[in-house]
Amino acid sequence: MDLFKAFGGKSNSKDIAKERLQLLLVHDRIDTSPRFLEMIKEDILNVISNYVDIDEKGLRVEITKERKSDDTFISALHANIPIKKMKQVIR
Amino acid sequence: MKEAIVITSGKGGVGKTTTTANIGTYLAMKGYKVALVDTDIGLRNLDVVMGLENRIVYDIVDVVEGQCRLKQALIRDKRFDTLYLLPAAQTRDKTAVTPEQMRKLIQDLKEEFDYILVDCPAGIEQGFKNAIAGADRAIVVTTPEVAAVRDADRIIGLLEAAELHNPLLVINRIKMDMVKRGDMMDIEDIIDILAIDLLGVIPDDENIIISTNKGEPIVLDEKSLASQAYRNLVERFLDRNVPLINLDVGNGFMDRLRRLFKMA
What we know:
The complex is a heterodimer.
Chain A: H1 3-8, H2 13-30, H3 35-48, E1 52-54, E2 60-67, E3 73-80, E4 83-86
Antiparallel strand pairs in A: 1-4, 2-3
Chain B: E1 3-8, H1 16-29, E2 34-38, H2 46-49, H3 60-64, H4 70-73, E3 75-76, E4 83-86, H5 99-110, E5 115-119, H6 126-132, E6 137-142, H7 146-161, E7 168-174, H8 176-181, H9 187-194, E8 197-203, H10 206-214, H11 225-238, H12 253-260
Parallel strand pairs in B: 1-5, 1-6, 2-4, 2-5, 6-7, 7-8
Antiparallel strand pairs in B: 3-4
Helix pairs in contact in B: 1-11, 5-6
């Protein structure tokens, strides 16, 4: 608990700015329509759900920028796929 | 050693021209031979920020069209004799110069100068393409605002696509009191998002407007914090081991209390 937030009246609009930017840039960076990520999402969903039950609402796909060990930056496609349970049949 | 650096931002009004003028002036103060090139054809302003607007005879378009020699168009600074300005044309548009002509121009300038600083127009069209042609490195200027950071990110992508790798970031007009209140993105927030190396941070400072009113780059005035920040930026440009200037000079009761609790 940040004592100064409670008493100092911090409004933290910068967190809102940062969050909005991060979301905005996901789309800007791939330089395509927001539909692009939706299409990837759907295809990932179709393939993975043959093997596991996944939480469709929790599925997140985004493009991020990461620093590599040699200090250059690369774009990466990150998919966060929450698993409900493994499908018995396949295992 | 000879290097052409383009100063760009995407969004207009974030301080490209002021940054170009100050980096160039301080490099010249340090004894380097510097050429400032204004590529904002139709909306030139570097001449005004440098206070050299009354000395323009020829411009960049005259040079590339062969109307005059390069040396005739270069205006020598009032204060430093190793500092020159090649002004943009005011009555033409961005298509008056091609990227090939720019590359040739930069090559020619490299014969005379140590550093060529190219002030890029806002936007991502022809003017931007001209400005980055022939550049060896890029400096991206942004302010701690959503729109400016977004455009900076777009520019970084375009620079990468044009094979201008590892651009350096300048965060302009930061207000430390707003950062402390949590109402302005901090240096770390912006670096986090843009993921490029930080060159320098310039505080929001009224003195910049005062110096621009007079046509004198602020680095000439040692006292102001913005001037020190620009000097620090240039020192870091020349040697990346130079630590970043500390702009957080607040020493009120709350500042000390926060430090005590390691919150600031």
